[in-house]
Automatic annotation (TrEMBL):
Pathway: Porphyrin-containing compound metabolism; protoporphyrin-IX biosynthesis; 5-aminolevulinate from L-glutamyl-tRNA(Glu): step 1/2. This is Glutamyl-tRNA reductase. GO terms for molecular function: glutamyl-tRNA reductase activity; NADP binding. Substrate binds at T49, C50, N51, R52, S106, E111, D112, Q113, Q117. The gene is hemA. Keywords: NADP, Oxidoreductase, Porphyrin biosynthesis. The keyword Signal does not apply. One of its GO terms (biological process) is protoporphyrinogen IX biosynthetic process from glutamate. Possesses an unusual extended V-shaped dimeric structure with each monomer consisting of three distinct domains arranged along a curved 'spinal' alpha-helix. The N-terminal catalytic domain specifically recognizes the glutamate moiety of the substrate. The second domain is the NADPH-binding domain, and the third C-terminal domain is responsible for dimerization. SUPFAM superfamilies: Glutamyl tRNA-reductase catalytic, N-terminal domain (SSF69742), NAD(P)-binding Rossmann-fold domains (SSF51735).
Length: 334
């Protein structure tokens, strides 16, 4: 299988370094176009999440190529960044992608957002005309496998998402604190999920929106809405502050927190690049968490779940290998 991958994740690079490869959709489209112009490239899919960035490259006219060099050149990354990359090829790559979609390689084991992120990566590549038949089929098989894992296996004692893990951290505090209030900055999928779980715990929740009067905005049931530009005015009145946006700029600065007469007990940053100035973690009385530190609270022995997941993965890998072998035979005839 002539597919190669170069990637960076939470195990190979610090949060500071991962921020350099935390691309938005426009940047992803630009990188896909640049990689696809390479003479040896037949297709490319780019996964970019808060915990990882991985470029899956299908080769056409060459047997060997350096995926790190190809990706770093397209993304304008320096040599120091190259040291953080890992490379996967062929069968190992296929198994890894299937495991990734199932949540085995996530910082929070079994989290469900990675499956959505893998789907979105494939769709963007298809929309841009950047993918090819081999990558499309590989990703579709991985997604189908992950869906089966989610429906057939119960991943005990793990939080299903980063949102759930963050709320788990504050759940005991919410139970003890009468009238506990939270501000969630960000109305994306993660922000909405955080709101839903906070409300389920009995917390009063405000969520920011940038277009308050837009009817297409989804507001979780029970949430109070506050315009994004008014967020600072509410911070002194909440116990929990969580930010989960895709903004390239900080949504909460150290000055905002310093100006608060009353400061939140918990400040949690669920974004990459980071939404919140990490200096807030040095303020006495504030419990500060970000994507990396949240993952550290989720460690457990998942060996039994992994064994069951890998059995299902092996079945789906076999189906993909049969398709790929058949395709190779047909191409040889042509």
């Amino acid at each position: 299988m002539n597919i190669i991958m170069a990637g960076v994740d939470y195990r190979s690079a610090s949060l500071e370094l991962r921020e350099k490869v935390g691309f938005n959709k426009n940047q992803i489209r630009d990188i896909l176009a640049k990689i696809n112009k390479e003479a040896c490239v037949s297709g490319v899919v780019l996964i970019s999440t808060c915990n990882r960035t991985e470029a899956y490259i299908s080769l056409s006219h060459c047997e060997e190529a350096d995926p790190v060099e190809i990706f770093c050149n397209a993304a304008n990354l320096d040599d120091d960044m190259k040291k953080c990359f890992y490379v996967k090829k062929g069968e190992d790559l296929a198994v890894y992608l299937f495991e990734l979609a199932c949540g085995i390689h996530s910082m929070i084991f079994g989290e469900d957002q990675i499956l959505t992120q893998v789907k979105e990566a494939m769709l963007i590549a298809i929309e841009e005309g950047a993918s090819d038949a081999a990558l499309n089929t590989l990703f579709r098989c991985a997604i189908t496998c992950a869906k089966k894992v989610k429906t057939q296996l119960v991943l005990n004692a793990v939080s299903p998402s980063v949102a759930g893990q963050s709320v788990q951290l504050v759940s005991e505090y919410i139970e003890k604190k009468a009238g506990c209030k939270a501000l969630v900055i960000g109305n994306g999928a993660v922000g909405r999920k955080v709101c839903e779980e906070l409300i389920a715990k009995g917390c009063e929740v405000h969520i920011t929106t940038r277009t308050h009067n837009n009817k297409s905005i989804i507001v979780p049931t029970g949430c109070k809405v506050i315009p994004y530009h008014d967020r600072e005015s509410l911070i002194p009145y909440v116990d929990i502050l969580i930010s989960a946006t895709s903004s390239p700029h900080q949504t909460v600065t150290i000055d905002m927190i310093d100006r608060c007469a009353n400061k939140p007990k918990y400040i949690i940053d669920l974004a990459v690049p980071r939404d919140i100035d990490p200096e807030v973690g040095k303020i006495n009385g504030i419990l500060y968490y970000n994507i990396d530190s949240l993952g550290e609270t989720a460690r457990k022995d998942n060996s039994k779940e992994i064994s069951a997941m890998k059995s299902l993965i092996a079945e789906h890998i076999e189906n993909f290998n049969k398709w790929y072998a058949q395709r190779k035979r047909l191409m040889a005839v042509k």
